[in-house]
Specification:
Elements lengths: L1 H25 L4 E2 L16 E3 L5 E3 L8 E6 L8 H12 L5 E6 L11 H9 L20 H10 L11 E4 L5 E5 L8 H15 L1
Parallel strand pairs: 4-5
Antiparallel strand pairs: 1-7, 2-3, 4-6, 6-7
Length: 203
């Protein structure tokens, strides 16, 4: 009996390890979403509103007709240097219509503990010039409504799993792509999707 229990524990431990590895592998790549995918809700991103780091309204409807790249950020994360790539991407594409929105969040590892003023000052060290929202929850029941909509549209697996998860919203307000933290802002996957979204916006 004891040997059987030991074997069962070992099996469960192995199964848990395999599940963890599978989960990590599933987060190692992103995807561009097909235009004709089945919709789960009648809402679009244009139904949601953020508040800026300075306390002003940031309705996504103000950017109708433009693709928006939404990225949850943190100041003290191993991926924080992606701010450099975000700024470079923003400068490369903003005149063509791309909007970049950073959403600071303390959800993962407590890596965004500061006040709005501290977050803003930190971002200035990366010469960030794109819009920043105030600090928001991006997971769970207290998540900002935009992130709850993403889960309603794409399922629980599409929720951010860490800082610097990326969502591309098309000019029509529909989700056009999603990429995990490991995919850098200037990767070919993201620039290709941005190019396609900008082309669709003008067609």
């Amino acid at each position: 009996m004891m040997k059987r229990r030991t074997l069962m524990r070992a099996f469960l431990a192995l199964a848990g390890s395999l599940a963890t590895v599978k989960g990590l592998l599933s987060l190692s790549y992103g995807t561009t979403l097909p235009k004709d995918r089945a919709r789960k809700t009648s809402m679009t991103a244009h139904d949601f509103e953020f508040t800026s780091i300075d306390g002003d309204r940031l309705p996504l409807s103000a950017w109708k007709g433009k693709p928006v790249l939404v990225i949850n950020t943190a100041s003290f994360c191993g991926y924080t240097r992606q701010y450099e790539g975000m700024e470079a991407l923003w400068r490369q594409y903003k005149d063509r219509g791309l909007v970049m929105l950073a959403v600071p969040s303390n959800d993962f590892g407590g890596q965004e503990p500061g006040s709005a003023a501290e977050i803003k000052a930190f971002c200035e060290t990366y010469d960030v010039s794109f819009p920043l929202s105030r600090k928001e929850a991006v997971t769970g029941g207290n998540a900002h409504p935009f992130y709850r909509w993403v889960v309603a549209e794409l399922g629980e697996g599409a929720a951010p799993r860490w800082n610097f998860h990326k969502y591309l919203v098309g000019a029509d307000g529909l989700l056009a792509g999603t990429w995990p933290s490991s995919v850098t802002p200037q990767s070919k996957d993201i620039t290709g999707a941005v190019d396609a979204a900008l082309k669709a916006a003008t067609s």
